[in-house]
Amino acid sequence: MSVHQLIIIGSGPAGHTAAIYAGRANLNPLLYEGFMAGGVAAGGQLTTTTDVENFPGFPEGISGPELMILLRRQSERFGTRILTETISRVDLRRRPFTLYPEDSDEGIKAHAVIIATGATAKRLALPGEEELWQKGISACAVCDGALPMFKEAPLVVIGGGDSAAEEALFLTRYGSRVYVVHRRQELRASRIMADRLLKNPKIEMVWDSVPTRALGNGTLSGVEVENVKTKERKTLAARGLFYAIGHKPNTEIFQGQLELAEDGYIVTTAGTARTSVEGVFAAGDVQDRHYRQAITAAGSGCMAALEAERWLAAQDL
Ligand code: FAD
Ligand code: NDP
Question: Which of 243, 265, 284 is the last residue of a domain?
Answer without folding.
Answer: 243
